[in-house]
Amino acid sequence: MNRLPGRTVLIAGAAGGQGRAGAVLFAREGARLALTDVDEAGLGETVDEVLAEVPDAQVLARRVDLRNLPEIAAFVAETEARFDGVIDVLYNNAGVNHLDAIENVTPDDWDRVYDINLKSAFFLVKYALPALRRSRAASVVNVSSGAGLLAPVDGNGVYCASKGGLISLTRAQARDLAPDGIRVNCLLPGPIETPMVRGFFAAMPEEERVAAEQHVVGRSLFTRFGRPEEVASMAVYLATDEASYVTSAIIPVDAGWTAV
Ligand SMILES: NC(=O)c1ccc[n+]([C@@H]2O[C@H](COP(=O)([O-])OP(=O)(O)OC[C@H]3O[C@@H](n4cnc5c(N)ncnc54)[C@H](O)[C@@H]3O)[C@@H](O)[C@H]2O)c1
Fold this sequence. Notes:
By secondary structure, the chain is α/β, with parallel strands linked by helices. The protein has helices at 17-28, 40-53, 69-82, 107-133, 157-177, 195-202, 206-218, 228-239, and strands at residues 8-12, 32-37, 59-63, 89-92, 139-143, 183-189, 250-253. A 7-stranded parallel beta sheet has the order 3-2-1-4-5-6-7, with helices on both faces. Helix 1 packs parallel to helix 2. It binds nicotinamide-adenine-dinucleotide.
């Protein structure tokens, strides 16, 4: 508790799931929050949840479509204006899944998944760089996936490639930003109980769904879904000074999902 007093944390993809859990956990640590998502209603619920738990939390929340680079730049500028020009933590958590047979994937599908899962992560860092450099201990936490290492289900090529790219981007940015003292790390969640996963299974016919859930959860050594806060708590740890010697780390949070 209170490990990040007054630090500014920008969370992309804060309207639900792991991003919302992160907002609450970072607020508990005393951080100031700049929250964004394309889902404005979900973002409002996140703000309500944060303030219910930490009534004096400082929160800036704005709808941004991460496919729109000028909107990203404007949100970073607004965050700087609100929080003394400093961003201490960038939590690149937004993402979309994509499942379809190769022959059905369109160039627009590819661009959408890549824009949200990979391109936005690069440009968030680019636009936030001056503010990150003003921090005395800045850190970037990217959220990839076990699917960045493995091909866990059929028809997941675009998502897997984008998440694999995020792993490479993490290493490259960790190298580029080390001279500035900015650490860059990457989480690989396993199956986590969030709106994304609920939507993934809900789209399947009943008989397929049971087998698919068993297949996915069966790879977890705890044979259960993870909870959003079990991932977000690792993001919080990476943002604290306790992780001061951790950069370019690719960290599974998956109960062994990528190990067996
Ligand atoms: N849930 C899992 O099992 C799982 C596993 C591995 C990796 N992940 C990754 O974890 C991250 C968080 O996902 P989650 O499980 O909490 O799901 P989620 O769907 O709750 O969160 C993703 C967020 O990204 C936002 N988003 C999507 N497109 C956007 C856009 N164009 N602009 C701005 N925001 C946009 C969504 O609105 C949503 O709030 C994602 O990057 C996901 O790929 C999730």
